[in-house]
C-alpha cells in the first residue's frame, strides 16, 4: 500500500477535514510573506478529546524540482483531556498555523493534515514568484 491510497482530498467549503492554504497568489522573489493553513475553515472541526486534528504539515515544491521541501510540521496536543474525564480540560487546540517564508521560485504549496478518526487529508495551491 502507498500513502497516495490513504490520502483524502476535496473541497474545503463542503468538507471539514481539508487543510485550507491561504497565501498570496503571487509574491516577490526573496521577500517574506505569510502562509496560513487551517482545518475547518468553512465547516468547523470538533477538536474534542475524541475527535480532533492531530497535526498539519506544510511543504513547498518548486517548479522543476523533484522533491518538496518541508516548511513546517505543527502538532496540536491540547484537546480537552483532563483527569476529570474527556472534554473537561482547560485547553483545546484549534488547527490553524501561520508560517512566514521567502521563495525564489514559483511552485506549489502542499498541506497535509491528520484527523485521529478520519485519517489523512491533503490540499495544494500554486504560487507564482516574480
From TrEMBL:
Keyword Iron listed? The answer is: yes
Keywords on record? Electron transport, Iron, Metal-binding, Transport
Q: Which InterPro entries match?
A: Desulfoferrodoxin_Fe-bd_dom, Desulfoferrodoxin_Fe-bd_dom_sf, Desulfoferrodoxin_SOR
Q: Which Pfam families does the annotation name?
A: Desulfoferrodox
Give this protein's Gene Ontology molecular function annotations. iron ion binding; oxidoreductase activity
Top-level lineage group? Bacteria
Q: Is Electron transport found in the keyword set?
A: yes
Name all Desulfoferrodoxin ferrous iron-binding domain ranges.
Answer: 10-123
Q: NCBIfam families, per this entry?
A: neela_ferrous
The UniProt family comment states: Belongs to the desulfoferrodoxin family.
Could you tell me what this protein is called?
Desulfoferrodoxin ferrous iron-binding domain protein
Q: What is the lineage of its organism?
A: Bacteria, Thermotogati, Synergistota, Synergistia, Synergistales
